[in-house]
Design a protein that fits this description.
The protein is of the alpha/beta class. It has helices spanning 8-18, 30-35, 62-85, 88-91, 93-100, 107-124, 130-138, 153-159, 161-169, 215-220, 236-248, 271-280, 312-316, 320-328, 333-354; strands spanning 22-27, 53-57, 146-152, 175-180, 226-230, 253-258, 287-289, 301-303. An eight-stranded mixed β-sheet has the order 2-1-3-4-6-5-7-8, with helices on both faces. The longest helix has 24 residues, at 62-85.
Length: 371
């Protein structure tokens, strides 16, 4: 990755949280280059020789590719449970039931499940029947697998957006991490639908004239999708909490992570400070939409950042992609950036209003029973 890359801290955090339970479907882009630059790889292993499973797919089908991870993993877990059931008499009902019904919602639960599976291995180590060998081959599938579908904004906002929408609408337990650089970084800096108004990029040489697409609000509209917007440089605690909550949510989740990029034309040693300015200016509000909160009659939308405290100009003056607008369109630059500030103010107003609603104002996560 480029020195100071804004994407890599999020991937490192994922591996630290989920370790060898992590299955990563990686869209083509920067992350697939530094993630799969064989014969070397940044995806490491633990002391037991286990680590995340990683595979790369295309721009246009990565969401579906990762969805296949979920379907196959669930099928393998079901098969492992069936095979475990056949040893109920030998292993004892208490052990079999404790494995099948294990909650696996936190680190303590996961550790306890590992210990149970280790106990099964010990009890079967002297059993050499084909059935025992088959169970040993699939038994690790009884440990909860964490599927993360990973890529950039060129994938999630543009080329793979249809597939992403399809997977989020499925209701299945998949997690999506969008590392949003607001531009096609790996292919040379072309504008994407994530590129903000006023930024100069290839195919937007005179500054992008339309607002940034709001993928978060699109996902929130489903009602049953966990959605978060994070920026590690602005609030590492909120980023950590959002990723943990996304994984814990039993349905689909979407985490959109601000990722500063060398294509922005910034001093990359100040990347985290630029993330803070993005949040403080209102360009990148931090929030979490947790559908599970409605079960407790709480507002599912939580606005984690304060009202903008600095003007947009304090954020954009550090980036060549905005400063170039004064060179490309000196007569229009002022008006375009003024409109960009207006867009930010209005968007913040939408989020702030959402944060004042009660649980009943949002789409329910699931349909109520019809009597």
């Amino acid at each position: 990755a480029c020195s100071g890359c804004g994407e890599t801290p999020y991937l490192k955090l994922m591996t630290q949280l989920f370790g060898d339970r992590l299955l990563v479907a990686n869209a083509t882009g920067c992350s697939s280059i530094y993630g799969g630059n064989l014969p070397t790889t940044p995806w490491s292993k633990n002391a037991q020789g286990r680590g995340p499973a990683w595979a790369n797919s295309l721009f246009e089908d990565n969401a579906e590719f990762g969805f296949g991870f979920r379907l196959s993993s669930d099928h393998q877990a079901d098969q492992a449970m069936l095979e475990l059931e056949s040893f109920r008499e030998q292993l004892g009902s208490d052990l079999v039931d404790s494995i099948i019904h294990a909650p696996q919602e936190n680190d303590t639960d996961i550790h306890q499940q590992r210990e149970r599976l280790k106990l099964v291995q010990e009890q079967l180590q002297d059993v050499h029947t084909p059935e025992a060998q088959s169970l040993r081959a699939v038994m690790d599938r009884l440990l909860k697998r964490v599927v993360w579908i990973v890529g950039g904004d060129g994938w999630a906002y543009d080329i793979g957006s249809g597939g992403l929408d399809h997977v989020l609408a499925s209701g299945r337990n998949v997690n999506v991490l969008v590392m949003d650089t607001e531009v096609y970084s790996n292919t040379g800096g072309q504008a994407s639908k994530s590129t903000p108004m006023g930024a100069v990029a290839k195919f937007a040489a005179a500054g992008k004239r339309s607002a940034k697409k709001d993928v978060a609000l699109q996902a929130i509209a489903y009602g049953n999708v966990y959605v978060a917007r994070i920026a590690m440089g602005a609030s590492p605690q909120q980023a950590l909490q959002a990723i943990r909550e996304a994984e814990a949510w039993p349905g689909p989740s979407l985490v959109i992570a601000y990722s500063h990029c060398i294509a922005h034309g910034i001093n990359m040693t100040h990347g985290m400070e630029q993330q803070r300015l993005a949040v403080r200016s209102g360009h990148w509000p931090l929030f979490r939409y947790n559908p599970g909160r409605t079960d407790h009659h709480e507002n599912p939308f939580i606005l984690d950042s304060l009202r903008p405290s600095v003007p947009l100009t304090d954020y954009i003056r550090n980036e060549v992609r905005y400063r170039a607008l004064n060179i490309a369109c000196p007569d229009e630059a002022g008006a375009i950036l003024e409109e960009a500030q207006t867009v930010i103010n209005r968007k913040w107003g939408v989020y702030e209003e959402m944060a004042t609603h009660n649980a009943m104002d949002f789409v329910p996560e699931k349909a109520s029973a019809v009597h």
